[in-house]
Specification:
Pyruvate Kinase, Chain: A, domain 1; 5-stranded mixed β-sheet; elongated
């Protein structure tokens, strides 16, 4: 019986230590969600502002696009894809969901795909699916670390486009919906073609005072396009990180609840075994006392 109670003591101690780790990770995930959610909210307003600026430029430029960003390149290049995942575990099906979605969408596209993965775990998942992987980026650990990642992606995609190796660029990431719920989404970032231009030109201006493009149309347009590419990648990464931490927080909450139930069960069993041992010892004492009393009589 002593071995059984000792074993239970070790299990209770181990479960308590594990719960401390889980609660620490839960606190870290909860604190991280705030910065990414604030970033996503701010980016939504900024993204809308950039779109309205591009729409104003395109309306002033008339029906023909004012720039031709490598429109004359051959269409035989591959389709580039950036898939945002995670570098850490304890996120449930986070990487599986976005990887399966990317595989499904890319399989339906006419050209072959070249994939860059953001995160080791989604990289492994995409490799298992047989996609041709061209690079691996590290997942940022803060909002400030997103900017260098965006720069790396833009430099890589620009180099591939310049040599005609990639004609399109698609982004795949998990978009937060409500609470710990997220859904995989995709955005075609490049090329900036006529359909993209027309869509922005048709955006209604929010007020009755129509804007005027200052400082030269082409220069302003190029500056806005750079901001559009940057904020699109930044938003995709920030939304992926917000979804990842929400998923991790939900997983830690479930783990904390399960550990509470396990500890309750272990403590109940431990106290029952301990009480049974005390009862048996009392019965032995009483039996011995009665036996001694019978001999004296």
């Amino acid at each position: 019986m002593s071995n059984t109670t000792a074993s239970l003591r070790r299990k209770i101690g181990g479960a308590g230590d594990l719960q401390s780790v889980v609660r620490t990770m839960k606190a870290v995930a909860a604190s991280s969600i705030g910065q990414y959610e604030k970033s996503v909210t701010a980016l939504a307003d900024y993204y809308r502002t950039v779109e309205l600026g591009l729409g104003a430029c395109f309306r002033d430029s008339g029906p023909a696009p004012p720039i031709a960003e490598r429109a004359g390149k051959a269409n035989a290049g591959a389709i580039g894809a950036v898939v945002f995942g995670s570098d850490q575990g304890l996120v449930g099906q986070f990487n599986d969901v976005v990887a399966d979605y990317a595989v499904k969408v890319l399989a339906a596209l006419p050209a072959k795909a070249e994939v860059w993965a953001v995160g080791e775990r989604v990289h492994e998942r995409l490799a298992d699916a047989g996609l041709p992987l061209k690079g691996l980026f590290t997942v940022p650990n803060s909002v400030k670390a997103i900017t260098p990642l965006v720069g790396q992606i833009l430099v890589e995609s620009e180099a591939r486009q310049r040599h005609g190796e990639v004609t399109e660029l698609h982004l795949f990431y998990n978009h937060p919906t409500s609470g710990a719920v997220y859904a995989p989404v995709t955005q075609r970032l490049l090329p900036l073609d006529e359909s993209w231009r027309r869509k922005l030109a048709e955006l209604p201006w929010p007020t009755g005072n129509l804007p005027e493009v200052m400082g030269g149309g082409i220069a302003t347009l190029r500056a806005l396009i750079r901001e559009y590419l940057f904020v699109s990648l930044f938003r995709a990464c920030a939304e992926s990180l917000a979804s990842e931490n929400a998923s991790r927080l939900a997983a830690m909450q479930r783990a904390d609840k399960n550990i509470d139930e396990l500890l309750e069960d272990l403590n109940r069993t431990f106290h029952r075994l301990r009480q049974n041992g005390i009862d048996e010892e009392l019965f032995d004492v009483i039996s011995g006392f009665e036996a001694l009393s019978a001999k004296k009589n």
